[in-house]
Structure formats: C-alpha cells, structure tokens
Amino acid sequence: MKENHAATSDTNLDHSDGSMSGAWQERYDAGKTGWDRGEPSPALLHWLNQDTLSSCRILVPGCGRGHEVVELASRGFEVTAIDIAMTPVRELTHRLTKSDLVAEVLRKDVLGFSSSEPFDAIYEQTSLCALEPGNWAAYETRLHRCLKPGGRIFALLMQSNRHDAPPFHCELRQIKQLFSDTRWSWSDDAFNVDHPSGMTEIATILTKRES
C-alpha cells in the first residue's frame, strides 16, 4: 500500500491568534467564501503552462481550500501550504489523500510561520488582502525571510476598492512601496485576471534581490 504523505498540524497556533482563526472559521461555517473560485487561478495555470514557474519547493500562504496546492502537487512541486482556519486545512488534506498527492498542509498563522529551509518560490493569492494593512509590513518581512535570494513571489493583488474589511484593496503603488526595489525586483509583464466575485487581480512576479 502506498504511503500517503499529505500532513496536517494543528499545533503551534498561538493563543493570541484565536480571534483571527475564529473569524475565518466562521466564514467557512457560514459559507461566506467568495474568494474561492472553485478551481486553480488562470494566472497560476498561465505561469505553469508557459514554464515561468516550474517544479520547485514552494510555499502557499493562506491557501484556503487549496485548489492551487492540488495543481502544484500534481505537477511534482514540493508544496507547503498554510491556513489559519481548520475547515480548509481538513478539506485540503482529505482531497490530497483521496488523490494520492503529496503536500505538507499546516494550520498556522502566516505572520508566525517560519521555515528552517528557505523556499524557491511563494504563491501569494489571497493572503495579503486578507490581512489588516497594519500587518502588511510584517508580512513582507516574513515572506522575505522565507524565500531564497533570487527566489520569486508569484502574486495576485486584489483590486477590491475595500478599505474597511477583507479583501482589502491592494493598490499597486502602495504595494510597490511595501515590497521596495531595494529588496525586490518587479516583473514588467503584469496582467489582469478577472475574479468570479466581480473584482480584478493584478498578476505579477517579484524576485528577491541577492544580498
């Protein structure tokens, strides 16, 4: 019988994160998951099919139900996926197990996550816009630490025009200041992706500058 390597961890979730975890869990319980398109993002598929993103060790923060995680795992990526809510962690682990796919799935707060080995790439889709803007600088620092020099973030920046609740608007000029050119190199070939919610995402690639 083939061993299944899909894994979950419910430990190391700080008690201080309980209210945040509970808030997102309540959204899943109530079926209020409008960010979930039900399939992998067309931007990710574009990057994969164009070989812009190829098999490597990749982090998916705020993975949700993990449609992209399943796609990446099916293509041979070494995937670590994290989410703060229990429901998506359980559902994703079950889906990986059922499909006989390998990925590490952890229930953790993205702001407290660390890894002893840096990643080659990060897929950032709905994590930044889910965080209070006051936490964005800490999140940028966390991603920078998790990524190898020369590693890349494949990012989708939500254009929601919302400033009081998630998904928060990720205004491009503001995000470029946050991910400054002293630490990151921005791709010139950004493109727009329509979201089923009626919003738009800006798909772009950031490369961590060599030290």
From TrEMBL:
Coiled coil: none annotated. GO terms for biological process: methylation. It holds the Pfam family TPMT. Residues 1-23 are annotated as: Disordered. Residues 1-11 have a biased composition (Polar residues). InterPro entries: SAM-dependent_MTases_sf, TPMT. One of its GO terms (molecular function) is S-adenosylmethionine-dependent methyltransferase activity. Keywords: Methyltransferase, Phosphoprotein, S-adenosyl-L-methionine, Transferase. It comes from the Bacteria. PANTHER family: CYSTEINE SULFINATE DESULFINASE_CYSTEINE DESULFURASE AND RELATED ENZYMES (PTHR32183:SF6), PTHR32183. This is Mg-protoporphyrin IX methyl transferase. It comes from Stieleria marina. The lineage of its organism: Bacteria, Pseudomonadati, Planctomycetota, Planctomycetia, Pirellulales.
